[in-house]
Amino acid sequence: xxxxxxxxxxxxxxxxxxxxxxxxxxxxxxxxxxxxxxxxxxxxxxxxxxxxxxxxxxxxxxxxxxxxxxxxxxxxxxxxxxxxxxxxxxxxxxxxxxxxxxxxxxxxxxxxxxxxxxxxxxxxxxxxxxxxxxxxxxxxxxxxxxxxxxxxxxxxxxxxxxxxxxxxxxxxxxxxxxxxxxxxxxxxxxxxxxxxxxxxxxxxxxxxxxxxxxxxxxxxxxxxxxxxxxxxxxxxxxxxxxxxxxxxxxxxxxxxxxxxxxxxxxxxxxxxxxxxxxxxxxxxxxxxxxx
Length: 291
Fold this sequence. Notes:
This protein is an alpha/beta fold. The chain has helices at residues 17-26, 31-41, 49-54, 62-76, 81-85, 109-119, 137-145, 158-171, 227-235, 255-265; strands spanning 5-6, 13-14, 87-90, 93-96, 128-131, 151-155, 176-179, 191-196, 240-249, 268-274, 280-286. Helices cover 35% and strands 19% of the residues. The longest helix is centred in the N-terminal third of the chain and has 15 residues, at 62-76.
């Protein structure tokens, strides 16, 4: 994609960093992404826009041109920028991510904010369980913000759990990790707060092709996208302390259905929280003190 030289006026000259940016943009790469890709190819911090502005007339080294060509092709195929960078910011933390895990989304911070609000109202060192932790985003954000609360995180994918454990170790956050499918990973245990961002996209949904580079098992859940949420709502009462809470992230149009599931299961104080776009992104409820 990036040629070794440009021939303006019939004279060959080295390709500059600015030339490379323009050619990446001409290849259909968003300008912000193009800057990040160029900085990655130059083996610099992908967010160092100031350095790039100061050096835009510098020649593009041949080895960097090769790396940039590969990165541009990967981005053209739809690979997330987070995978190309190798990291993603989430709730003030820099998490390492790769195709073993979903890329943490800003929408999920809505769930973290709600969980933090609840932890401030629950007595003592309330215990937290994050089901299907993926990169560890939710569990690590909660532990970083409320270090006095024990946090356990689970995942059925050993590969995903390895990513989460590595993130915890690098960030110095003491989260307990358990392998297993949903609540089967913590048999017989009870928690004060259970949180989860489970798969909730319907099989065959038209959004799936755009997510082809992320693990399908962490995205889809049956014909209506609610299979895993149904399982979590049904199983959570046996894993919650009396008065404990279950919070679930879900799709943009699933809040009414999730609230009905919680109500049918016997939860109280059921509600939903909207993300910054005003979309009901999470729903939850409290398991009664007495049944």
